[in-house]
Structures are given as C-alpha cells and as structure tokens.
Design brief:
This is ABC transporter ATP-binding protein. By secondary structure, this protein is α/β, with parallel strands linked by helices. It has 8 helices and 18 strands. A 6-stranded mixed beta sheet has the order 5-6-7-3-8-9, with helices on both faces. A 5-stranded mixed beta sheet has the order 12-18-17-14-15. It has a 4-stranded antiparallel beta sheet with strand order 11-10-13-16, with no helix packed on it. Strand 8 and strand 9 form a beta hairpin.
C-alpha cells in the first residue's frame, strides 16, 4: 500500500513528521550517554532502532489509528509526537496544544493532595494557575472524587487516581489528543463517562491519535490507520483497508499470534461480578470426554450508574447447553444467549458475538445494532439477547464463540466474554474450505458456445 498521501497544505496539518527515527544504544553506560548529550556526539556501538524513517501527515480534525505488534514502535512514535522524546533522525512539527493519555498521573506527587497535584501538573499541560482555579470545580466534579480532592494522592484507590488524572488531562480542551490503548479509562460508569468525553472531543474537531490492539475500535473510530512493524511504516490509509491487511498479516504466521489453547482474558471483577463460563482452550484430547455444561448463575442486577455488564452467556446446540459443542455441516440449531444487567438510565446497550479462528482471525460476527435490533430490558435494567442460527454452513474446524456488550453505537465495550465456548465441526469430506457457500449447478450436454 502506498505510504504517502497527496500533499496537504501546511495550514491544514496538525502533525507532520518527516523521516522520523529514534535509536537507542542499550549497552551504553550512563556516563557515555551523558557525554554524548553534552557534547552532541554519537555513542559508539550498535544501535537499536525503535522507529526508523517514518513520514506522516495528520490533518486537523482527523482521527488516526496506530496498529502493530508489541515492540512495533507505536509508543515511541507517540512520545516523539508529544515531545517527551527527542528524535535521532528527522523532524516533527505539531500545530496546537497536545493532551496525552499515555501514563495518566505520571507526574503526580503521592504526598500532595489531589488539588495540589492539579495545580502543579496543570502548567505542564499548558494551563495557567488562574485557568486551573477557574476549572477546578469542573475537574473535581467530572472525576467524582469529591472531598478526597484535599487528601494525599497516596490514599487514593487506583480508580480515583486515574479519574482525577483523566479529568485534568482532558480539561485543557486540546487541539490534539493522544490516546494509548483505551478509548475509556477507569471502570464502571466512569469508563462510559470518559468515552463520551473523548467522543465529544472528536465531534468538535479535535485531532486524535489512537493506539490500540483493538482492531474493531480502531476501524470504527478512526478515519485512517498507520501500521507499524519493527519500527517501520508498513502502510497508511483508510481504516478498513489497513486493518484488513494487518489482519491477514497476523493470520499468516506473526510470532505474536497465540497458539491454540493460549489463555484469553475474560471480564474482570469490576466488569462482571457474576462468573461467566471459563474461556475455552484447546479441544479435549479425548473426543469422548464429557463437555462442561454452563450452569445457571444468579446475581442481582448491577447498581453501577452509567454501566452495563454481561451477566452470563449460554451456548447451546439443539437445546443442549454446553461450552463445547460438536456438529456436522448443515446440522443443528445453535443459540447464543447473552444475559445482561445495566443502569436503566443509560441508552439501550448493543449485543454482539463472534466466531473466531484459532489464529485470532474473526470468521464472522453478529451485532444487534447492525441488524437493526433493539434490545429490551425490565425496570431494573435486566435483559436477554438470544442469537439463533439455523443449519450452519461451517466446514471442518474449531470455532471459538465470544460475546460482548457495547454502548448504543457499539464502539465502547462495557463487557466482553472472549472464547466463551468452542464449536467443533467434523466433516468427512476431503474438500478444503471453511464454509459451504450457497450455490446451484446447471449441467447440459455439449458446449455453451455450440
């Protein structure tokens, strides 16, 4: 894919990087590094290039996603663009105030109160003391920490700490927002609240750089995507095209692709107080071994304001519930039931599920919003969404079933249950393929042109 876009007038650019590179010499002593910094000389020895020869233009108001394996250079690029790291080669020009959600609260002093930390760290974000005093009440209100603002930060929970840091970082009304890994921070209702603030900034025309391993969020949120690999730019272009190429690259044998049976995360305790079925690893060694059946779990509805969660996921084939399902092509009825709890005051959530291959590629997905299906819930915010499939056209193979619950536009995920069940399809036919596509045959003697 072409890495260079059409030239853009300088006034329309928020960020311009030209042949940007960053090298480290991991074996150099601290004294050698100090001498090199003072004298402006190179340190002898081999260099490790975290980023090399990356040129990039980001238009004002654009949302650019960064993808790549761990160690690809994404965080290094963000640090260079934020000015926290100096480049070894190339130049970078940034037009506007930058707010970075990289290491929230990294400059906070644990012995100082939250209020003092806001006043001390605000100037680093470009806010004067008068501005901070004017915005102090709104920062405290958004963070939700109340009277704890005058307590030492070391007494805060991790959630309180990140809420205050986020409220401060996003109070500056930046021209450019840099996000590393998550479109929301904190847990429960604050995660939704922080997502809404980021989305509002995007709608106001804030330029956003979003680095994440969530390819779904990258494609749904960003206008364009830059793919980095081993410090080099592999592609930049429309989100759907670059994400497609990166997904195919991962499926082709990336060392980062987990082997079948590798552990997969399920909702945390904050996301779901009720246990879900355990993530499925590899198929059992003994094909005759009994499959565990999902057992009912009874928990009260969530009382967390602004939040929703998956309570339980039940998968069944022909009415028999199990986390290990076996079928032959074109046989059986598959049902995936997603029970959820939600704050009745938030917009109706969306539900979805995926069929995932062992190499982490998503074979297919179903989303209620895309299918124009509105979920239903009772006065306590409880509901169940059941997805039913008639005879599946899947061919031989193992397919992991996952489920998730998102907000009304399906970008922010409240809760996720990855690889909640395993569907194994056996097919005696030797022909290759993953699915049977609908088709018809027409046969006749002779050739058509006759």
């Amino acid at each position: 894919m072409n890495l260079s876009d059409a030239p853009v007038h300088e006034a329309a650019l928020a960020i311009e990087a030209v042949h940007l590179g960053k090298a480290y010499r991991p074996n150099a002593s601290p004294a050698a590094r100090l001498r090199a910094a003072l004298l402006g000389r190179e340190i002898p020895g081999d260099s490790f290039w975290a980023l090399r020869d990356v040129s990039l233009q980001v238009r004002k108001g654009e949302s650019l996603g960064l993808i790549g394996n761990n160690g690809a250079g994404k965080s290094t690029l963000l640090q260079l663009l934020c000015g926290t790291v100096t480049p070894t080669t190339g130049t970078v020009r940034v037009d506007g105030r930058v707010a970075a959600l990289l290491e929230l609260g990294a400059g906070f002093n644990p012995d100082f109160s939250g209020r003092d930390n806001v006043l001390l760290n605000g100037p680093l974000l470009g806010l004067g003391r008068a501005q901070l005093l004017e915005q102090m009440d709104s920062i405290i209100e958004f963070s939700g920490i109340g009277h704890f603002i005058d307590q030492p930060v070391k007494t805060y929970s991790s959630g309180m700490f990140v809420r205050l840091a986020f409220a401060l970082a996003t109070s500056v009304e930046p021209d450019i927002l840099v996000i590393d890994e998550a479109l929301s921070v904190g847990d429960g209702g604050f995660a939704r609240k922080s997502f809404d603030r980021i989305l509002a900034m995007k709608e106001r025309g804030t330029t956003i750089l979003f680095c994440s391993h969530s390819l779904y969020q990258i494609e749904a949120f960003c206008d364009r995507v830059l793919w980095l690999h081993e410090g080099k730019a592999m592609a930049v272009g429309p989100s759907h095209a670059v994400v497609r190429d990166y997904t195919l690259f991962l499926a082709g044998g990336s060392p980062e692709v987990p082997a079948p049976g590798a552990p997969v995360a399920v909702p945390s305790a904050e996301e779901s107080a009720a246990p879900l079925s355990a993530p499925v690893a590899a198929p059992p060694a003994d094909p005759e071994a009994p499959a565990p059946v999902a057992t009912p779990v009874t928990q009260p509805g969530t009382a967390t304001p602004g939040h929703a969660r998956i309570r339980r996921v039940v998968t069944s084939l022909d009415g028999v519930a199990s986390t290990r399902l076996q079928m032959t092509p074109g046989q059986g009825t598959l049902r995936v039931s997603i029970e959820f709890d939600s704050d009745p005051g938030i917009p109706m959530p969306t539900a979805g599920m995926t069929f995932e291959l062992a190499n982490t590629m998503i074979l297919s997905s179903v989303v209620s919003r895309t299918d124009k299906v509105m979920l239903e819930r009772d006065a306590q915010g409880r509901g169940t969404a059941t997805i039913e499939f008639g005879p599946l056209a899947l061919r031989k193979g193992d397919y992991y079933i996952g489920a998730y619950l998102g907000n009304e536009n399906a970008i922010h995920l409240y809760s996720e249950a990855a690889r909640i069940a395993l569907l194994s399809v056996t097919d005696p036919r030797p022909e290759p393929g993953l699915v049977d596509l609908p088709h018809t045959w027409r046969v006749e003697p002779g050739h058509v042109e006759d």
